[in-house]
Specification:
It contains twelve helices and 19 strands. The chain is α+β, with helices and mostly antiparallel strands. The chain folds into two domains: about 230 residues, no CATH class; about 220 residues, Aminoglycoside phosphotransferase (APH), C-terminal lobe (Aminoglycoside 3'-phosphotransferase, Chain: A, domain 2, Alpha-Beta Complex). Strand 1 and strand 2 form a beta hairpin. The longest helix has 22 residues. The chain starts with 11 loop residues before the first helix and ends in a 9-residue tail after the last helix. Bound molecules: adenosine-5'-diphosphate (ADP) and ligand LMANGFYV. Adenosine-5'-diphosphate binds next to strand 12 and strand 14. The ligand O=P(O)(O)O[C@H]1O[C@H](CO)[C@@H](O[C@H]2O[C@H](CO)[C@@H](O)[C@H](O)[C@H]2O)[C@H](O)[C@H]1O binds next to helix 9 and helix 11. Pathway: Glycan biosynthesis; glycogen biosynthesis. InterPro entries: Kinase-like_dom_sf (IPR011009), Mak_N_cap (IPR040999).
């Protein structure tokens, strides 16, 4: 492969030769890199765009890089890891002859070979000139190479908004512009329609007040595929995220059930709006069996990757079998588009006490087609129940009663708005909670190995039939 980037003379192969040693060392240290604990075999450039050509002063490179990793024993999981998919990552690289001291923390490395030899490469998001360039490109609906910057023409985007990198625990990377907008740049790029753009756009049309409406977005057309690379939306100033709030209240020994109930109500509001905006389906016997099979397959895959799961696998499988059995009987459920990865960190509370939901990307490791399928809304409910459990286990001794109160209050709030209490479907709820805990085991093993004991404790509870949320 030696496609030209934008300037004659530089080919993608040559560019990659320049960057290879730097990326090899830098990528695995990034929070959003999903292949931790595995060496990198090689890189390929899916797309490379010079947003600003490297001159003697500075340049801005936009890259989509595919990272290949072998199947090796993983230190983090203590056993054989599954073959990793060759993930594609979005990188915004600043290129300068000399890095000013204020940008030192953004350093990726000094290039010693290839067409960029002699340049210093750094994370461009930390450079205000680069971030201003991105906002301006969205404002002006620029097209550069394969990149399409688009916007909602009805939304005003100011041209003088000071950018800053969001300091948050997140799977992607975000820039805040003057406390007015937030631009999320997706890191792991999967071709197709990203629900984090699709669903908020639909919800905005539906007049749903609980989800910030996209103002602009960044797309790339690569090999006939649409790729969603970023979304700009209003920044909800002064909001607190549910995870931080929950931890604060826990540490102070305060009850959180009033907020949990309000969160249940907000979740149901969003579910109702999604059900109005997009088709819903009734799940028949075959679909329920497929759902239960999918859960069992994910469990098997996770147990292969994380041996600590293995002692519980047989017991967990009975939960999924119970779900399939129920589907074979008279029970029927409605499926619709849902959030897909709902947890406390996705909920923002305004100073007036209103909750908003963000980040509709779904579980990043699932196929996009799967993430965009209608699903029982109880899956989101199960995600939130897990999140109360996560918060409770963040301290010693574990605040099990605190979590129990929140879980119950959340279901109550949900029922008040939706008319259906999730606890009335205990088999379904338990199956989805188990499926989520299995996902979390794999997620933590890949991203945050230190957190692995948290979902593993839930696995143990669910496998030994410990108390799930009881129906009242
Ligand atoms: N519209 C918004 N207003 C204010 N803060 C936001 C907004 N969207 C996201 N955030 C902040 O950014 C963090 C990460 O956002 P999120 O969409 O969850 O990204 P990721 O997919 O990377 O996890 C959130 O936890 C929240 O603190
Ligand atoms: O960052 P995303 O929102 O895309 O979600 C991923 O990362 C989450 C952690 O940041 C992870 O959530 C898990 O940890 C949370 C505490 O940090 C906890 O509240 C959630 O219940 C738990 O699932 C999420 O699973 C993952 O997809």
């Amino acid at each position: 492969m030696s496609e030209a980037v934008t300037r004659p003379g530089i080919t993608t192969d040559a560019l990659l030769a320049s960057l290879d040693p730097l990326l090899r060392a830098w990528l695995p240290r990034q929070r959003w890199f999903a292949g931790k604990g595995h060496p990198i075999t090689d890189f390929t450039l899916v797309a490379a765009t010079e947003l600003l050509p490297p001159t003697s002063e500075l340049g801005l490179l936009h890259l989509l890089v595919r990272v290949r990793q072998p199947q090796v024993p993983a230190q983090v999981t203590g056993g054989a890891a599954p073959a990793l998919p060759a993930d594609c990552y979005q990188l915004l690289l600043g290129v300068r002859r000399e890095l000013p001291p204020r940008l030192a923390p953004a350093l990726i490395g000094h290039v010693t070979r290839g067409p960029l030899a002699g340049f210093t490469v750094y994370e461009a998001m930390h450079d205000a000139r680069m971030s201003a360039f991105l906002l301006e490109a969205l404002r002006m609906q620029a097209r550069v190479g394969k990149l399409r910057f688009e916007r909602d023409p009805r939304k005003d985007i100011g041209d003088d908004l000071a950018p800053r990198v969001l300091a948050a625990e997140q799977s992607n990377s975000s820039l805040v512009y003057g406390d007015t907008f937030i631009l999320k740049l997706f890191r792991r790029i999967v071709p197709g329609v990203n629900p984090d753009l699709e669903l908020p756009l639909m919800l905005a049309r539906e007049g749903c007040a609980q989800v910030p409406a996209p103002a602009a977005w960044l797309l790339a057309d690569v090999a006939d595929d649409l790729n969603v690379l970023g979304v700009l939306q209003p920044y909800l100033k002064g909001t607190a995220d549910g995870w931080e709030m929950a931890l604060r209240e826990l540490a102070a020994g305060r009850d959180f059930s009033g907020e949990a109930r309000a969160l249940g109500r907000a979740t149901a509001d969003v579910h109702l709006a999604l059900a109005r905006a997009l088709p819903t389906v009734t799940l028949g016997r075959a679909q329920m069996e497929l759902i239960a099979e999918g859960m069992a397959e994910r469990l098997d895959a996770a147990a292969k990757a994380v041996p600590a799961l293995q002692p519980y696998a047989a017991a967990l499988r009975t939960t999924f079998e119970a779900l399939a059995d129920l589907g074979r009987g008279e029970a029927r459920w409605t499926a619709q588009r849902i959030h897909g990865d709902l947890h406390l960190g996705q909920c923002l509370r305004s100073p007036a006490g209103e909750w908003s939901l963000i980040d509709f990307e779904g579980e990043p490791s699932r196929a996009l087609s799967e993430r965009r399928m209608p699903q029982p809304p109880v899956r989101d409910v199960a995600g939130m129940l897990r999140s109360f459990d996560y918060a409770a286990r963040s301290r010693e001794p574990w605040a099990t009663d605190w979590a129990g109160d929140c879980r119950a209050a959340y279901c109550t709030g949900y029922a008040e708005v939706s008319g259906r209490d999730p606890r009335m479907d205990p088999v379904l709820l338990r199956a989805y909670e188990t499926d989520k805990a299995v996902y979390e085991v794999l997620y933590e093993a890949r991203h945050r190995p230190d957190w692995l004991p948290v979902p593993l404790a839930a696995i143990k509870r669910l496998a030994t039939n410990g108390p799930a949320t009881e129906p009242h």
